[in-house]
């Protein structure tokens, strides 16, 4: 059984009325990075996960968790 | 007397450089192959050799900058951070791995091919290096294709 990282980045971001570009600016990354993380294409580093959590006023655990990938 | 700032042409920001990375990367393999033919042609005169070498140097610098993210003094620290963010480093690494794989496969193919065909050293080096570069830059262009729409 494999595990994959999923997130509720998009939900939290839209709750705050923030665009991908605004979140990218806050975290000093490209919008593509935000887009690929949101779509679970790219797994962010711990550092970026912490930056995202800070920018979205949430904890890393609230934003990211793992799911069984059968 | 006042000093005017540099024009936008000489002050690219993260957004414009990323746009160039997306749109111009496809041209690099074509330029590499073209200039390779230009440099290695048998009837090249001194001017052609000099021009070819300059062209080769320019493309090499661009590739090294794309892959290693060499700092540009006119790009702000924030833009530099964005240009070398995790996604960009990740796709550069993936492209480099494809380039190395291409080097290995091409090398092996040449070793097999020399059983039937005589192997010219210059052409072999040209084929190996450019084959790897073409594969790496194509892979980079593919991974970095198209800016996604907001919330796509």
Task: Provide a short characterization of the protein structure.
Chain A has 70 residues and is of the alpha+beta class.
Structure in words:
The complex is a heterodimer of chains A (70) and B (152). Chain A is α+β, with helices and mostly antiparallel strands. Chain A has helices at 9-15, 20-27, 31-38, 46-55, 60-63, and strands at residues 2-7, 64-69. In chain A, helix 2 (20-27) crosses helix 3. Chain A has a two-stranded antiparallel sheet. Helix content of chain B is 70%, strand content 0%. The radius of gyration of chain B is 19 Å and the shape is globular. The mean pLDDT of chain B is 77.
Question: Tags for this entry?
Answer:
heterodimer; A: 70 residues; alpha+beta; two-stranded antiparallel sheet; 2 strands; globular; B: 152 residues; mainly alpha
Shape of chain A: globular
The ordered string of helix (H) and strand (E) elements of chain B is HHHHHH
Derived from helix and strand composition plus strand pairing, the structural class of chain A reads alpha+beta
Mean pLDDT of chain B: 77
Mean pLDDT of chain A: 92
Q: How widely separated are the two ends of chain B?
A: 49 Å
For the largest beta-sheet of chain B, the strand count, sense and barrel status come to:
none
The poorly predicted ranges of chain B are none
Q: Largest protein interface? A: A-B, 17 and 17 residues
**What is the 3D form of chain B?**
globular
Give the tally of β-strands of chain B: 0
For the record, give the distance between the C-alpha atoms at the N and C termini of chain A, rounded to a whole number: 6 Å
Instruction: Note the beta-strand portion of chain B.
Output: under 5%
Low-confidence spans of chain A? none
Helix percent band of chain A: 40-55%
Round the Cα radius of gyration of chain A to an integer and report it. Answer: 12 Å
Oligomer: heterodimer
Sheet with most strands of chain A = 2 strands, antiparallel
Summarize the amount of helix of chain B as a percent range: 55-70%
Portion in beta strands of chain A = 15-25%
